[in-house]
Amino acid sequence: MNAVKQDRHHDHSLVEILAVLGIDLLLLCLTLIAGASRAGLIQTLPLAQLSMPTAAPTMNVVAAGYSSTTQPATPTPDPRPPLRALAEARGLLVGVSVAPWWLEDPHYSALLTRQFNAIIPENAMKWDTIHPEPDRYDFSQGDAIVEFARRNGLKVRGHTLAWGNQLSQWMLEGDFTRDQWIQILHDHIITVVGHYRGANNDHTVFAWDVVNEAVGLQGELYSNFWLQKIGPEYIPLAFQFAHEADPDALLFYNDNGGEGLNPKSQGIYNLVQGLVKSDVPIDGVGLQLHTDTFIAPSEAELVANMKRLANLGLQVHITEMDVRVQNIKKSLSEKLQDQAGIYRRVISACLASPNCTGFFTWGLTDRFSWIPGHTGYPDAPLLFDENYQPKPALDAILEMLK
Ligand code: XIL
Question: Would you state the pLDDT for residue 42?
Fold first, then answer.
């Protein structure tokens, strides 16, 4: 398991990097000169006082069909080998996204730590939570997750640094120049990544989704907040800032819908190829895999995509997998069998690809999946049901890992 990255040499100039991305050099020079003239601006903002975790929002469980409003059953001894043990024997990280308040439920935390060796903060490290005001950071939720991971010997993927969603109100309302936005991005990444690198740097937070969802459906750069404020350079800059803050962390580009072979995955490939060629410190690509039983990419496409990324020297993590089964006219057990087939296919593609080093689902149990809230329909997209019981999808994965 390559949890800590090898030392890599990243000494190409920013000019070369931007040239690969087709960015105007004159504009760049002016920017750099202007930036240098304000030397001293690039500082780390003071860390906010740590505060106690805020109260958990009320869970909005969409009940019809899949979910239960009763408490999960007390776990009965499970004869299956833990997923975590089988994955570790294969050198694979396996994990789920979490919210800090879920970890306080002993049934939840017992299931999580038995089955998985890594976690991702589902929302706790996004700008609107962790950086609520220009000069105030709130690490309370992220710290609760990282402390839980430390206590239980889990790894943490940091999520996420440069994304167009879940930004703070002060940013959406902010009237800043391009240089100031670069400064803001820099200070945020240095502060957040620096905070989780920590004084003792135990590599608990071993990886970061540095740039999230930057590519559009046709492979173009998606016109998100950062593209509008900074231009395409925000991408290499974000990776450089993250590397500056934690040279040991694995740095990922993460996206959804570009897992197989299509215009979007071609666009992602072109982007990361450009970054690698210009020695931008990128270590891997996250394939989110929010999917369903119809649109899921074939195993052959997944393997081909992972292979071309391997040829660039990049790792792959499956970062946010869930498989929707809503609005299908089949019995629940048929739907769960179909779903198991998709999970089997993805883990099989991962096992066939030596650069696929992590497999994560977006949530532990159907009880707390984001999908019903996001789509407006009840669903059951994960490996454990709303009563924390294993589903056919878990058995399919265990079978592949044996
Ligand atoms: C989702 C969370 O699961 C929700 O709780 C939140 O309301 C919206 O964001 N791609 C990502 C994740 O990279 O951060 C998103 O998470 C799902 C899509």
Answer: 31
- Mark residue 247 as left, alpha or beta (left: phi above 0; alpha: psi -120 to 50; beta: remaining): alpha
Q: Which of 144, 150, 147 has its CA nearest to residue 130?
A: 144
- Cα of 124 to ligand 1 centre, how many Å? 11
pLDDT at position 65, please? 53
Mutational pocket test of ligand 1: of 120, 165, 211, 360, the residue with most ligand atoms within 8 Å of the beta carbon = 165
Burial class (CB in 10 A: 0-12, 13-18, 19+), 70: exposed
| Active site positions, annotated | 213, 320
pLDDT at 5 (0 to 100): 53
Q: From CA 382, how far away is CA 321, in angstroms rounded?
A: 8
Looking at every residue in the chain, the average pLDDT score rounds to: 87
The rounded Cα 174 to chain-centroid distance in angstroms is 26
Provide the pLDDT for residue 67.
58
Q: Do residues 250 and 208 make contact, with C-beta atoms less than 8 angstroms apart?
A: yes
pLDDT of amino acid 77? 74
Instruction: Among 60, 61, 98, 123, name the best residue to mutate to test ligand 1's pocket (greatest count of ligand atoms within 8 A of Cβ).
Output: 123
Residue 49 has pLDDT above 70, yes or no: no
Query: What three-state secondary structure class fits 285?
Result: strand
- At residue 198 the predicted structure's pLDDT band, cuts being 50, 70 and 90, is confident
From ligand 1's centre to the CA of 193, what distance in Å? 20
Task: Supply φ then ψ for residue 161, to 5 degrees.
Answer: -100, -50
Q: Residue 212: which of 272, 254, 250, 164 has the closest Cα? A: 254
Q: Three-state DSSP class for 103?
A: helix
